[in-house]
Amino acid sequence: MMPENVLYTDGHEVTVTDTFFRVKRALYYLNGITKHGLLIIHPYRLGPFLSLVLGAMLITTGAMRLIPVRTIPNIVLLSDEISANAIALGLGIALFVVGLLVLIFMRDRYAIRIATAEGEKNVLVSPRREYITQVVDALNNAFQRVVSPKHEKIRWGNRKK
């Protein structure tokens, strides 16, 4: 049996040779992988967006004093009276700021998705596109060395350069 050629390793959890692909403790033989590719995982933005909208609505309600004084009594806190409009304004500002910060810091994640006889799965996920691209390129190189007629190289998601 010939020794395996290591085509890529990050020194820790990923190794690609001309016969297998190892991620952490999982080992995938190349002849068992039918498809592989890069997947872009977009974050779920509905929650932060709804927080922004609700915050803006509460800010508008509190700033325009749309809550009648007689409907909700003032709250006494440390000998100060706080109106429902002031509470709406403060809560609206808090929701708006939190929603905005979450939206600003949300980032796409990238994954290596493979298909085997057991099904499809994301075997490696990272926020660093360059890292995932290096591993996918190493897998492409490994599959070019061992030409498999049943293997298909694919791209999941919308890959942008």
Q: What would you note in describing this structure?
A:
The chain is an alpha+beta fold. The chain has 2 domains: about 5-40 and about 110-155, PH-domain like (Roll); about 45-105, no CATH class. It has helices at about 45-65, 85-105, 130-145, and strands spanning about 5-10, 15, 20-25, 25-30, 35-40, 75, 80, 110-115, 120-125, 150-155. β2 (about 15) and β3 (about 20-25) form a beta hairpin. It is rod-shaped and about 80 Å long.
List keywords for this structure.
161 residues; alpha+beta; PH-domain like; four-stranded antiparallel beta sheet; four-stranded mixed beta sheet; 3 helices; 10 strands; 29% strand
What percent strand? 25-35%
H/E element string?
Answer: EEEEEHEEHEEHE
Shape: rod-shaped
Strand order of the largest sheet: 1-2-3-4
Question: Whole-Å distance between the termini?
Answer: 40 Å
Looking at the overall shape, the CATH architecture of the largest domain is Roll
Number of strands: 10
Round the Cα radius of gyration to an integer and report it.
26 Å
What is the helical fraction, as a range of percent?
25-40%
Number of domains: 2
Largest sheet: 4 strands, antiparallel
Structural class: alpha+beta
Low-confidence stretches: none
CATH C-level category of the largest domain: Mainly Beta
> Any idea of the CATH topology of the largest domain?
PH-domain like
Total count of helical runs of at least 4 residues? 3
Question: What is the typical, i.e. mean, pLDDT?
Answer: 88
